[in-house]
Specification:
alpha+beta; 46% helix
Length: 156
């Protein structure tokens, strides 16, 4: 009797739990700082061998207003990060994210490239410096966790 039940349970596909929502404070401060709604957009943080990617897209391709706000915000963030200014993520998360002190210190060895995408924009973060790379990965892993994006914390 237990064997057929066990076989049935093993045969059922594993159901993934839905990704929990970010902390309401992160959402509220983020919506204020970014100028667009978390509900109308999707954030993704990807780790790469040379750094990582910050991607924000609209949930609806008809939402041109949010798409344009994403582009304006990420363009602004690219310039701020390149200058070693991480005040926006510190405000949104109400703390200094891991990696930020090193990213500030090594800012001359980190490149931030803004690119528009059809649904929003991305910032490509790259470096050849191993210490800066670790800091970038720490920063992005924190973003994944605090925004609860469900993105992989592993290098892709």
């Amino acid at each position: 009797m237990f064997v057929p039940l066990l076989a049935l349970l093993v045969a059922l596909p594993a159901q993934q739990a839905p990704t929990p929502a970010p902390d309401p404070g992160v959402v509220s401060r983020g919506d204020h700082a970014m100028g667009f709604s978390h509900d109308a957009t999707a954030h993704h943080f990807l780790l790469t061998k040379s750094g990582g990617i910050i991607e924000v897209t609209v949930n609806s391709s008809a939402d041109a207003k949010s798409r344009d706000q994403i582009r304006m915000h990420l363009s602004h963030i690219q310039k701020k990060f390149a200058a070693g200014d991480f005040d926006v993520p510190m405000f949104i998360h109400d703390t200094t994210p891991p990696g930020v002190p090193t990213m500030r210190k090594l800012r001359q060895q980190i490149q931030y490239k803004f690119e528009e995408t059809p649904q929003g924009a991305i910032i490509r973060i790259t470096t050849a410096n191993p210490e800066a790379l670790k800091a970038i990965h720490d920063f992005l892993r924190f973003q994944i966790t605090d925004h609860k994006t469900g993105d992989s914390p592993e290098v892709q």
